[in-house]
Write a structure and sequence with these properties.
59% of the residues lie in helices and 11% in strands. It has helices spanning 4-20, 26-42, 48-78, 172-189, 196-207, 215-223, 234-250, 258-272, 277-294, 301-315, 323-349, 365-392, 399-423, 428-453, 467-484; strands at 86-96, 101-104, 110-117, 123-129, 141-150, 156-166, 394-395, 460-461.
Length: 498
């Protein structure tokens, strides 16, 4: 079977969805797994063809039911003591379980965004105001006066005012990582304190402090389909891997032994930046990819993506109902499959004429880079558009063009910010130097965003699409991918000459 990780992930995630929806209970799943396992063992007896079919079917059923059992178990666990949604103001107590982020408002006011772990094991998204809210830290025990509302995915959100807080017991490793994150944020502000808006964008790009970006600026990025650059994802993990690989090469560590060092480094970076869905996806995918070389196996991006989805849903099936998780994996998968096929076609258009002399048949590096950038931008937009319409009712057609300029600028800005953090430990002068370089790049990025935000019909709002439309869209994308890969091209018959 080619790419068994994809088969594993699709079957298991399907089962998780059935289990979380309550269509298959945990006990039924266990009984079904046992019956399918017996069928799998019985597949040894018939002929080879029948055996292969039975083996694939029974293995798929086992994986689906195993996913349903895991999803049903998680669903039962979520029911233990849910915090009820209420329009009445109540008091809530819990522990701050993530690094608090301060969101400034006009007029000098602001609010803190974090996560609150309440009795019963549930974690609520939290938005707090009030005296002392800005000084909250990870692990603080707080009392909040406010209301809880629930999204259509079932997650609870608490908004209110801080009543009391006190220091609590914390995980020492997580506390140190969050402390390093805050120290890095102060280093990124060095020398550009007079530009708080741009400093907030720099901290959001490098460290994931997205709430530091003013709401007006965030709306411009949303209108141009470029808000994804603030999500810690493959862009940031790739730069972090580049730094780590540069150091490992300098120390003459062979590539087959990179995995343990990269695992520690990437896990630390992911936790330090808040462990968002996109960051966890990119980190897991990178670790699976490098684990292939460590185990002597050929690395494959699609298999790494599928296996990382399986691992994350095995840990927490509720990821399936997280919009960031779904968008992250869909876009990454679209870039791997559709983007790869589109890039091959565009590269073929810019390839040199094979009949030209060798000295004149030079393949332009710029043409290859542009074809790759266009393929990534177009494929990412095409695979994310139906989900954006389904979940948020928004669509930014101008994003296909704007991302061709915004993503490279964001890449260089993140690279400059990482250099500021690395070399700033030698001297603060280096931080000031790289921060000013990042400042110029951010001004250029804002200019591009403002230009495309004024494009007519660049952003559409309140445009909704149903599940039927989503399935039809992805079916058409599947046909397009097949056409680009030449699946429907007529086969050329070869004749043998005697």
């Amino acid at each position: 079977m080619r790419r068994p990780a994809v088969f594993l992930a699709v079957a298991f995630l399907t089962g998780c969805g059935l289990g979380l929806s309550g269509l298959i209970g945990p006990m039924v799943s266990l009984i079904g797994c046992a019956a399918s396992a017996i069928l799998y063992l019985a597949a040894i007896l018939p002929s080879l063809t029948v055996r292969s079919v039975l083996r694939c079917i029974s293995l798929a059923v086992v994986l689906v039911l195993a996913g349903a059992w895991r999803g049903g178990f998680a669903r039962e666990g979520r029911r233990v003591q849910p915090t009820e949604s209420s329009s009445q103001v109540s008091y809530y107590k819990g522990v701050v379980s993530s690094d608090p982020e301060w969101e400034p408002f006009s007029g000098g006011d602001g609010a803190v965004h974090s996560t609150l772990s309440v009795p019963g094991g549930e974690k609520l998204g939290m938005v707090l105001r009030g005296s002392g809210a800005k000084e909250l830290c990870y692990g603080d025990f707080v009392t909040v006066r406010g209301r809880v509302r629930r999204s259509r995915w079932g997650r609870g959100y608490l908004s209110g005012w801080l009543v009391a807080s006190e220091r609590g017991n914390v995980n020492a490793l997580t506390a140190r990582l969050y402390s390093a994150r805050r120290r890095a944020a102060r280093m990124l502000e060095s020398g550009i304190e007079d530009f708080p808006e741009q400093a907030g964008i720099l901290k959001a790009l490098v460290l994931g402090y997205r709430k530091g970006v003013p709401r007006e600026t965030r709306e411009l990025f949303i209108a141009t389909g470029s808000l994804h650059v603030f999500a810690i994802s493959g862009l940031h993990i790739g730069i972090a891997c580049s730094f780590a690989v540069f150091v490992l090469r300098g120390l003459r560590v062979p590539p087959s032994r990179w995995f343990p060092f990269l695992a520690v480094f990437l896990l630390g970076y992911t936790l330090m930046t808040g462990a968002s869905s996109s960051a966890v996806r990119a980190c897991t995918m990178a670790l699976v990819y490098f684990a292939g070389a460590f185990l002597g196996r050929k690395a494959d991006s699609i298999s790494a993506l599928a296996f990382s989805a399986f691992l994350l849903c095995l840990i927490s099936p509720w990821y399936l109902f997280d919009a960031g998780f779904v968008l992250s994996f869909v876009v990454a998968g679209g870039i791997c499959v559709l983007g790869g096929a589109l890039s091959d076609r565009l590269s073929g258009l810019s390839a040199p004429d094979p009949f030209l002399p060798a000295g004149r048949a030079k393949h332009s590096l710029l043409a290859r880079s542009m074809s790759g950038s266009i393929a990534v931008s177009v494929s990412a937009w095409l695979v994310s558009a139906p989900l954006m319409l389904l979940l948020f009712g928004r669509l930014a057609p101008v994003g296909i063009v704007s991302n061709l300029a915004v993503v490279p600028l964001a890449f260089v800005t993140v690279l400059s910010g990482c250099c500021s953090l690395v070399f700033g430990n030698i001297s603060i002068v280096f931080s000031d130097l790289f921060n000013h370089a990042s400042l110029g790049l951010i001004f250029a990025m804002e200019g591009v965003i403002n230009f495309f935000a004024r494009a007519p019909l660049g952003a559409l709002r309140n445009v909704h699409i149903g599940l039927t439309g989503v399935f039809a869209w992805y079916a058409l994308l599947g046909v397009l991918t097949a056409v680009l890969r030449g699946f429907f091209a007529p086969r050329q018959e070869t004749t043998k000459t005697v």
